[in-house]
């Protein structure tokens, strides 16, 4: 199953990049793990938004 | 002092430590920016526990800056707070089964309604070595916590400190 990566959303809702985990082995990725990845993406966006005027 | 830990529970560098904490200017906005909440949420998911928090240890109270599973708790008296114990140590503090800890035998957070059994906290340490608070995870059930877990929790504490240092930057 292929899911789109977690997009990094700005306040106006554009996906400007992605935070990705990659492996050469297949693996499962639980709902809890997806939540962690979303939190990390949100932290990255907070960081980027500090640079906005 | 009115502190039930007496001086035992107060770091030797308390005055300077409080100055550092005040320096981050958190007084008016303990309801902190998204990053603090994202870190608390991430901690709960990473360790599979129902409660996680980012807290700051003030002189008489521990302020909950962001939390998951502790809705309605915005501060805890310093003399009963586990977080105020955790800042006494440079490394990660872990109580895998708090009910068995002699030092927590009369602690109301452990033996009262909240019934905390598992507690792990990494100090939020300034670059010059003052612990101003912690990032912590807890559960009402006992839980094991490995060295790898400790390193992950310390990693989360670094994200918080980066965020706080950004605020200090002119």
Could you please describe the fold and organization of this structure?
The complex is a heterodimer of chains A (53) and B (170). Chain A has one helix at residues 31-49, and strands spanning 6-9, 15-19. Chain A is α+β, with helices and mostly antiparallel strands. Chain A has one domain (6-49). The longest helix of chain A is centred in the last third of the chain and has 19 residues, at 31-49. Chain A starts with 5 loop residues before the first strand and ends with a helix. The mean pLDDT of chain A is 82. By secondary structure, chain B is of the alpha+beta class. Chain B contains five helices and six strands. Chain B has a six-stranded antiparallel beta sheet. In chain B, strand 2 and strand 3 (75-77) form a beta hairpin. The model of chain B is unreliable at 1-6 (pLDDT under 50). The chains are: A alpha+beta (53), B alpha+beta (170). The interface between A and B is medium-sized, with 11 and 13 residues.
Beta-strand proportion of chain A: 15-25%
N-to-C SSE string of chain A, H for helix and E for strand: EEH
Number of domains of chain A: 1
| Helix fraction bin of chain B | 25-40%
* Topology, number of strands of chain A: 2
The CATH C-level name of chain B is Alpha Beta
Q: What is the level-2 CATH architecture name of chain B?
A: 2-Layer Sandwich
Number of helices, counting only DSSP H or I runs of 4 residues or more of chain B: 5
What is the approximate shape of chain A?
Answer: elongated
What's the overall average pLDDT of chain B, rounded? 91
Structural class of chain A: alpha+beta
Strand order of the largest sheet of chain B: 3-2-1-6-5-4
Number of helical segments of chain A? 1
Q: Name the beta content range of chain B.
A: 15-25%
């Amino acid at each position: 199953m292929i899911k789109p990566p977690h997009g990094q959303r700005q306040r106006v809702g554009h996906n400007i990049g992605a935070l990705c985990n990659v492996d050469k082995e297949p693996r499962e990725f639980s709902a809890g793990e997806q939540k962690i990845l979303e939190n990390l993406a949100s932290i990255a966006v907070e960081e980027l938004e500090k640079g906005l005027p | 002092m009115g502190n039930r830990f007496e001086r035992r529970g107060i770091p030797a560098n308390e005055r300077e430590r409080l100055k550092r904490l005040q320096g981050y200017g958190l007084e008016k906005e303990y309801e902190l920016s998204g990053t603090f909440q994202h870190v608390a949420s991430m901690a709960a998911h990473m360790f599979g526990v129902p409660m996680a928090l980012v807290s700051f240890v003030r002189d008489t109270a521990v302020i909950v800056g962001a939390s998951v599973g502790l809705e309605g708790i915005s501060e805890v008296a310093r003399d009963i707070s586990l977080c105020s114990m955790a800042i006494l140590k440079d490394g990660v503090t872990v109580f895998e089964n708090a009910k068995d800890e002699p030092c927590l035998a009369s602690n109301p957070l452990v033996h009262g309604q909240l019934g905390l059994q598992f507690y792990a906290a990494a100090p939020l340490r300034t670059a010059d070595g003052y612990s101003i608070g912690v990032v912590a995870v807890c559960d009402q059930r006992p839980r094991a916590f490995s060295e790898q877990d400790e390193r992950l929790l310390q990693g989360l504490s670094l994200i918080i400190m980066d965020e706080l240092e950004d605020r200090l930057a002119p």
